[in-house]
Design brief:
Elements (H helix, E strand, L loop, with lengths): L1 H7 L1 H20 L1 H4 L2 H26 L7 H19 L2 H25 L4 H20 L4 E2 L7 H7 L1 E2 L3 E2 H19 L1 H11 L1 H6 L4 H27 L1 E2 L8 H10 L11 H20 L6 H24 L1
Antiparallel strand pairs: 1-4, 2-3
Helix pairs in contact: 2-14, 2-15, 4-9, 4-10, 4-12, 4-13, 4-14, 5-6, 5-7, 5-12, 6-7, 6-12, 9-10, 10-12, 13-14, 14-15
């Protein structure tokens, strides 16, 4: 029974093993940093932003598609949130409008891809430039403070600290991970996502509305990117025009590192969750070991390539 469970979950087990090995390595090489609770509080305050988008992107990739526009949607929605808040004084209204705009941005991606049968990679490259450019045109490269949001109870519900130390955004990431896990593993729509990514033609023959599935997964990607943008802005109490920049490769890396292949049809929320943690702790661990930040991308590349190779070998053995 145990051997069967390991065979069915070897991808998740392998990525969890990678995380434990890395943590052990960092603890041994820099115990003052990695045996202190402060570093983990810092991780929980920053990792959730890319983690939320990686979890959402997992559904898109399992569906056999790709979205490169989410960092720009994140930045534009951060701008929308800031403007609406300063116009209304309400964090709740600003949050609702922001997420609505994000859902519209994601829906636009799905609509263009489905309606005109365009490659998702090309479409989302275009919309990435569009949303990023629109943000810069509207804000003219100027940021804006969000300090007044601290007067709202919603601020503490979104990015406050539990017991004064544990960032609330980590709880949001866990809740979203559990919700998306339920969708993928306990709901019929999750099965439709897997079937669509595995073989779109067969999915259509089975009666699955493939176009609707794709539109929904792109729409939710936009919504979660908007939510991540709000959390990231509130965490620093400031909207930066560059919000979203730097998240693209890390987010995609977390998805692939977690065992979701680019060809789709396979993938797990748990794998992406652990993959996001690994990507999030790497840079701090490398610097804490005494290496310069220049090593970061090199190590990123090595770990990702090795992990993807392991996942591929394991999948072939199962097949």
């Amino acid at each position: 029974m145990r051997n069967r469970w390991l065979a069915e979950n070897r991808t998740q087990v392998s990525i969890l093993f990678v995380l434990f090995v890395l943590l052990l390595l960092f603890m041994v090489s820099s115990p003052k940093t990695f045996l202190s609770g402060d570093i983990y509080a810092a991780f929980m305050s920053t990792i959730p932003f890319s983690m939320i988008m990686a979890l959402s992107l997992t559904l898109v990739v399992i569906c056999g598609e790709m979205d490169l526009s989410f960092p720009s949607i994140m930045g534009f929605c951060g701008y929308v949130f800031t403007q609406v808040f300063h116009a209304t004084g309400s964090v709740a209204i600003a949050l609702l409008v922001c997420i609505l705009v994000g859902l519209i941005g994601g829906y636009l991606n799905g609509f263009l891809i489905v309606r005109f049968r365009l490659p998702s990679l090309v479409v989302t490259i275009g919309t990435q430039f569009f949303w990023a450019g629109l943000t810069q045109v509207l804000c003219q490269g100027l940021g804006r403070t969000l300090v007044p949001t601290k007067e709202s109870p919603l601020y503490y519900l979104l990015v406050g600290r539990v017991f004064g130390k544990v960032p609330v955004q980590m709880f949001w990431a866990i809740v979203i991970a559990f919700f998306l896990w339920l969708v993928l593993n306990r709901h019929r729509f999750g099965a439709h996502i897997y079937y669509t990514g595995d073989n779109e033609a067969s999915a259509r023959v089975m009666g699955i509305n493939v176009d609707r599935v794709k539109i929904i997964v792109f729409t939710q990607m936009g919504g979660f990117a908007a939510f991540a943008g709000v959390l990231a802005s509130l965490e620093v109490l400031y909207f930066w025009p560059t919000l979203g920049q730097g998240y693209l490769l890390k987010t995609i890396a977390a998805v692939f590192l977690g065992g979701t292949p680019v060809e789709g049809g396979v993938g797990t929320i748990f794998g992406t969750f652990i993959g996001a943690i690994i990507i999030g702790i790497l840079e701090a661990g490398i610097i804490a070991m005494g290496l310069s930040g220049f090593w970061t991308q090199l190590v990123y590349g090595l770990i990702i390539v090795i992990s993807i190779t392991i996942h591929s070998v394991l999948r072939r053995r199962v097949a």
